[in-house]
Amino acid sequence: MTALATNTRGTTPPTSPARPSLGARITHALGGPLVRVLLILVGLFWLVPTIGLLISSLRSPDDMSASGWWTVFTKPSQLTFDSYQKLLENGDITHSLLNTVLITVPATVLVVVIGSLAGYAFAWMEFPGRDWWFLGVVSLLVVPVQVALIPIAELFGKIGLFGTILGVVLFHTGFGLPFAVFLLRNFFAEIPRELLEAARLDGAGELRLFARVVMPLGGPAIASLGIFQFLWVWNDMLVALVFTKSGTQPITVALQTQVRQFGNNIDVLAPGAFISMVIPLAVFFAFQRQFVSGVMAGAVK
Questions:
Q1: Considering the entire predicted model, what is its pTM?
Q2: Which of 18, 213, 221, 272 has the fewest Cβ atoms surrounding its Cβ within 10 A?
Q3: 290-to-108, 219, 296 alpha-carbon distances in Å
């Protein structure tokens, strides 16, 4: 009787399974098929303006003034490439598209190259006042573009850069560098010190260390910066309105000048706007893997 009582007292009663936390239940619910279908529908709804612009660019001005773009699903004969043919024959639009490339590509390359070098210097090189210099660069992030438009326009006018593509490139480069230095310095600072010390022991100098070790490891962050800068410069209109003239205007300003006094030049605006939008979208989707890697860098160890 005593042994039975001892065994009864010594046996651990069965425990009920722990109840999942609220976060775990929400995560499990969000992974269901119903939520995935809902997200797909939201994504398609987000694409409706893009699809509408594409269909509008493939319709004649008479059809667009008579009915909405969705009527093309019942009358597919409305689709035509005449608007794109007129767009290619419009010298102002094609020249402005070339100007946009000449502005966006150098402004993106300069920001990536200079920002990478400065980010590495602030992260791993010792020089007097490094932290104060970095603090000064970061403080420039709060300076709005609108504040500097008139002073820099006057400066460019005095040195002969106003109204030129070079002036627009320098403006975008100057205002893109603070964010670039801030982003890349924080990313490069997470590189293990032992890896850099091992490369120095092998005889690598600073430039070789930067090119062979830091740049490959910082590829995701550099790609993310390049995408951000490309989109910002390509879609810019404010700076282009102030600093460009008729021969150096990008596509955003050229499309704005196509607006007539008593109506819109829709047969040029619709295909021009779609081309202006689809190019940065193509760049984003082409580098989306690097972009996601850069955004998630440092999230997990």
A1: 0.77
A2: 18
A3: 16, 8, 10
